[in-house]
Design brief:
With 165 residues, the protein is α+β, with helices and mostly antiparallel strands. The chain is built from six helices and five strands; from the N terminus they run ββββαβααααα. A five-stranded antiparallel beta sheet has the order 4-3-2-1-5.
């Protein structure tokens, strides 16, 4: 169970602060909800019913700076090969974004980034869907890194590059 004031990652919303836990009524349904404010958009509010384990499972504590360092080290030693089949790649990217496994997100970002650079060198087009997955994955990962490290979101890629083996 999370407490008011805790900072968590929630699904694809990214870093959120647990504003409070409150009993609320939506339509005819009354229940207890986590009330989250995304750090990147403090005016937004996300309501997570505490009685829905599948939704609560999407809430995870943010990593510590030491855990981020370990994550970078592990991800840099496990490169993911390009997935040639468009449908398989789409399924993989969907699954990674939804599961929120940070190491897998880092490997996916690297895979997509390397492919984009390879195509750029060949003066070929990077698929829009791949660009969208890259942007979504970077937003999730960079949001947490920036928050935990106290740096600007624009500084995260360089931070990761400088800490990779």
């Amino acid at each position: 169970m999370f407490s008011a004031g805790e900072v968590v990652i929630y699904g694809t919303q990214g870093v959120c602060c647990v504003k409070e836990i409150s009993t609320m009524k939506f339509g005819s349904t009354k229940g207890e909800y986590y009330i989250l404010n995304p750090v990147s958009d403090p005016k937004s509010v996300v309501y997570v019913p505490t009685e829905k384990p599948a939704l609560v499972a999407k809430m995870r504590p943010v990593l510590s700076p030491e855990e981020l360092e370990t994550l970078i080290e592990e991800a840099s030693s496990q490169r993911l090969e390009w997935i040639e089949n468009d449908n398989e790649r789409k399924d993989y990217c969907d699954r990674v974004i939804k599961n929120g496994d940070r190491a897998e997100i880092m490997r996916m970002i690297e895979m997509l980034y390397l492919r984009r650079e390879e195509l750029k060198d060949q003066k070929k087009h990077f698929h829009n869907i791949d660009a969208q997955y890259l942007k979504a994955a970077e937003r999730l990962l960079h949001d947490e890194f920036a928050y935990v490290l106290g740096i600007g979101i624009e500084d995260v890629p360089e931070y990761i590059r400088s800490h990779m083996k």
